[in-house]
Amino acid sequence: MTSTLFDRPLFVKRGHHIQEVASLEDVFDLLDEWPAEKRGMPYEVLVKACRLAAQGIFPLNSLRENVRRYLIKERALANIDELPLVTGRVVPRSLTS
Q: Cα angle at 5 between 64 and 15, to 5 degrees?
């Protein structure tokens, strides 16, 4: 069985959170959840590329690059270098004390 993991994940802006896209399955999930009003010819081409990648016909690294370009076009690619890092230890707090 061939791996469907990308060599590096992509990160997608999804409202107030960031979604990691690290595999072919993640891309299918992302495209299933993509808003209908934002779907067009580039979306359909990407769906077709995903199906071909699932069959082993389209290279996975090329699919990742196409997804990256699509997300840039849609202004949905998150730059994780700009995200604040959580440092230190989180101390659990009880609401009753």
A: 60
pTM, entire model: 0.79
DSSP-based three-state secondary structure for 41: helix
pLDDT at 86 over 60: no
Instruction: Tell how far CA 17 is from the center of its chain.
Output: 12
Structure token pair of residue 25? 């399955």
CB atoms within 10 A of CB 74: 15
Residue 55, classed as helix, strand or coil, is coil
Judge whether 21 and 12 are in contact, CB under 8 Å.
yes
The distance of Cα 80 from the centroid of its chain, to the nearest Å, equals 12
Cite the beta strand spans of the chain per DSSP E: 5-14, 17-23
